[in-house]
Structures are given as structure tokens and as C-alpha cells.
Amino acid sequence: MLRDAGALREIALLRTSTAMPTRKRSPRADPKPRSSPLMKRADIPLFLTAIAQGNAAPRTELIYTDPFSLLVAVVLSAQTTDRAVNKVTPTLLAAAPDPASMAALGADGIARHIRSIGLWQSKAGNLARLARILAEQHRSAVPSDRASLEALPGVGRKTANVVLNEIFGEATMAVDTHIFRLGNRTGLAPGKTVRAVEDALVARIPPDMLRPAHHWLILHGRYICKARKPECWRCAGATWCTYREKAPTDPPAS
Ligand code: SF4
Description:
Layout: H1 5-16, H2 44-52, H3 67-76, H4 82-95, H5 99-114, H6 120-137, H7 146-150, H8 157-166, H9 177-185, H10 194-204, H11 207-223
Iron/sulfur cluster binds at residues 185-186, 224-225, 230-232, 235, 237-238, 241, 243, 246, 248.
């Protein structure tokens, strides 16, 4: 189910207006995670329901109008904030709205639109080659299977998980820096590697909650359970979180 681009833009602006954008870091760049005690399995639905804050059908903050524009946005979002990506995709996709026109635009043409984001040179090259493969081998459609997605330039497991979750409704878990941190800090899914956290989340979260949980965890990590200072005093999930250093009741003195 796709949403109107204007509505998405409004939602994105509302959500991001209260938070300072920070450059995404790879989970692998984080210091060794300090795992908390394992959250009880029975507490997981309660914790997730609490941090969902009534948002039953959360969606990505990336602005997109169709599968191809989502794939482009996700490829561009590596090591870059969604806000920065949302600034460059309108002009890029106006110039090249489909794989054939993106391939014709070429790496240099793509680069002219995305120079404000990180790793723009390699991303421009990846997008040009990705678009050509979609046009020549997939009839300009975004493939719905993991193997075909991960065979595309610039598309790894995390990007494939986002596309499978957001476009094709699969219960996947794309582990970014926020989810990696929360999996360990809250006791929800401790693991030393991104894949270990992903596998633990898929195994422990009830299947009917897995798809929205991806977004709940990202939003919670972005706005409440922040990397440097988790705001435990205003966290709806504090009752079930096992983080030893949480301070759930007292806001910081101003
Ligand atoms: S209580 Fe603190 S550490 Fe636990 S999920 Fe909430 S903000 Fe994060």
C-alpha cells in the first residue's frame, strides 16, 4: 500500500521537526554493545505495544511514491539521514522517475542531484547500474525476492529487508544502528553482530508484531532511547526494559 507523496512529506516534516538530524552510523561502527539481561518473552508484546504509542501502522520516514522510488531512497539512505535523502530525491526522481530514465541519466547525471549526501559518488554509480539491471533484467520492476534484490548494486541485506517489509509486506527486520542498540540495551534481542540481533528479533517478536516492530524500534531509538542519553524518564516501555542504568521517573534537571 503506497501513500500520497504530499501526505508523506507532511508526516516526515512533523516527525523530524522535533529532532536534530544526525548522520547515521553503521551498527558495526558502534562500540561493543553492552547487553542487558534478556527481556522476558512474555514482556515483549507489552514493551512493543507501549513504545508503539498507538501508532498501529507505522511507515518509513523516507518519502516515496512507488517501489522504484523507495528502492532509490533506501540506497541513498546508507550513512545518511532520511531528512537529507528526502531533500535530494524529489529532483532526482523528477529527472529520472523510472529505471530506464535513471540508467540513461547515468552516474554523472545522478551525481548532480545527490552531491549533498554522504558517499554520493559511489551511490551515483550504484544507482546507475542498479537502474540498468532493473530495466534490462526485471522489466523495470523492483523484484520481490531477497536474492534478486541483494544482487543489485548498493543493495545489501538491510536494504532488501526494508523493501521487503515496506513494499511487499514481509515480516522482515532491517537492523540499523538504532535497532542494534535497542536490541542490546533493552534486553529485547541481545547480540554481538547485526545478523545475531536480526535473528533474535525475528525469533522473539510475535509474528503479527514483527512488521510494525521494525518502525516502532527505529522511531523509539531515534526520539526516546537515544544513543548517548536514553530519555528513560519519558519512556513508555521502561517497565519492561531491562537496561540496568535506566532512570525511568525523573526528568533531567534544567
Ligand atoms: S527505559 Fe530507557 S533504556 Fe529502556 S527502552 Fe526506555 S529509554 Fe531505552
